[in-house]
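hey
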């Protein structure tokens, strides 16, 4: 991941997926945006952890805002998944939920997998 001042936060695991581990890396990219990399390992397929679901959606919730769907984590055969994106926000929560598809407009309660709060140091 390219950028200046890279910082890392560990993701807390929900009881439904006790083996999952993850982290969020944030670095200042071009034009002052924050480059975000969400990495997970030991992430069971969504339908295994939450029957009836098919996708892990990553949410970015600004301190004073609604959760934004920023993409999906797709576990590979080794149960690892990565998502890279960018944002202008400097304080936000990252949350991963199991969902029925890739385009929900809000996180489904009770399907949380991973979460952390991010405050980028200036």
């Amino acid at each position: 991941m390219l950028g200046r001042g890279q910082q890392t936060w560990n993701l807390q695991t929900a009881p439904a997926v006790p083996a999952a581990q993850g982290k969020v890396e944030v670095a200042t990219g071009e034009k002052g945006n924050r480059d975000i990399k969400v990495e997970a390992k030991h992430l069971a397929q969504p339908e295994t952890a939450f029957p009836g679901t098919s996708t892990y959606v990553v949410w970015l919730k600004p301190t004073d805002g609604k959760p934004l769907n920023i993409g999906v984590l797709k576990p590979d055969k080794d149960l690892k998944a990565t998502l890279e994106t960018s944002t202008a926000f400097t304080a936000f929560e990252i949350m991963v939920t199991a969902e029925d598809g890739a385009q929900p407009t809000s996180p489904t309660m009770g399907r949380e997998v991973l979460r952390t709060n991010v405050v980028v140091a200036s």
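Strands lie at 4-13, 21-28, 34-41, 55-62, 68-73, 81-87, 91-99, 112-119. The first strand starts at residue 4 and ends at 13.
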